[in-house]
Amino acid sequence: QSSQSLWNRLSVLLNLLPSAADLQESGLALCDEVKDMLSDAELPDLKANLLLPEDVALRNLPPLKNAHKRFNFEQDRPIFSALEEVSWAKSWKKNQIQPGLLCYVVPFPSTEGLSRVLQGAADAAEEARRNRLMRDMAQLRLQLEVSQLEGSLQQPKAQSAMSPYLVPDTQALCQHLALVKQLATSGRFIIIIPRTVIDGLDFLKKENAGARDSIRYLEAEFKKGNRYIRCQKDVGKSFERHKLKRQDLDAWNLYKILDSCKQLTVSQGSGEDDTTGMVTIITGFQLEDPSSFSVPMQSAIQAAANASIEIKNVLEFYKQWKEMG
């Protein structure tokens, strides 16, 4: 009873799950152990003898001592799918949680205790509703900020074809920081700095003055909150390509930047088919002769083209921007 808040939330969770009868009639592919358990799920005394990962993790927890007496923790635990574990949990709930008129509630010996838990379950549901509302409002604020930011960009008609988002690579920052600064202060572009680019600058800073200057510049801009130049955290979903990282670091870095660009287009609400012209990678590499690059680098460049993400030399991009006036 000292964990009433936990049980209240568990009761709300379990009411979202289908009944044993619904699971039996669903035609889902379940293992024999779970099928047998579902057939006995409505009996007064459920034979709870199948171990879930949670049972093993919470073994010896004092509040669950009685519930765990029937388990043989030395037996081999069947390998359940996530669906089968949920099915088992739906029936297990009758061990500790009893059905009320409106929802499953924690069993208490008194009417006062039952009323308190019912109110707690209602409060938990209201709290979940408020949390969803807060998340929705935060998402709307983010979308509004992006909309206002993009609306504030100075976009002469001649420049409307240029990408609003620029992603410089490590070479562009080391070799042409002054140009990147001009692009960032123009009010025409939003400069996105992926985490992998910062890591690249950090790797070069001991021997490369341009890397050190870039790090100081970026730290200052991030600290004062310049809305036209932003750091993008590692997207965390990319295939790491560890072998490629050892064999061709330039190609690996380009793939990582490309992953960041794809994540950027998704975060702005664009589908996979609606990324053309939105993001441009500006690089210090010369791109006139793609055949001069390694095969992995050529593949990375082609992957960018397939994703409708342009790659341009920073000098050429800067020249094009100036010519457009």
What does this structure look like?
The chain is an alpha/beta fold and 325 residues long. It folds into three domains: 3-107, no CATH class; 109-155; 165-324, Rossmann fold, CATH 3.40.50.1010. It contains 14 helices and seven strands. It has helices spanning 4-14, 20-25, 32-39, 53-57, 82-96, 111-152, 170-175, 177-185, 195-204, 209-224, 242-247, 249-267, 295-306, 314-324; strands at 98-99, 104-105, 165-168, 190-194, 229-232, 279-283, 310-313. Strands 5-4-3-6-7 form a five-stranded parallel beta sheet, with helices on both faces. A two-stranded antiparallel ribbon has the order 1-2. Helix 9 packs across helix 10 (209-224). The longest helix has 42 residues, at 111-152. The N and C termini lie far apart (71 Å). Mean pLDDT is 75; it is low at 93-103 and 269-273. Residues 164-287 form the PIN domain. One of its GO terms (biological process) is nuclear-transcribed mRNA catabolic process, nonsense-mediated decay. It is found in: Cytoplasm; Nucleus.
What layout of secondary structure does this protein have?
Blueprint: H1 4-14, H2 20-25, H3 32-39, H4 53-57, H5 82-96, E1 98-99, E2 104-105, H6 111-152, E3 165-168, H7 170-175, H8 177-185, E4 190-194, H9 195-204, H10 209-224, E5 229-232, H11 242-247, H12 249-267, E6 279-283, H13 295-306, E7 310-313, H14 314-324
Parallel strand pairs: 3-4, 3-6, 4-5, 6-7
Antiparallel strand pairs: 1-2
Features:
54% helix, Rossmann fold, 325 residues, two-stranded antiparallel sheet, telomerase RNA binding, 14 helices, alpha/beta
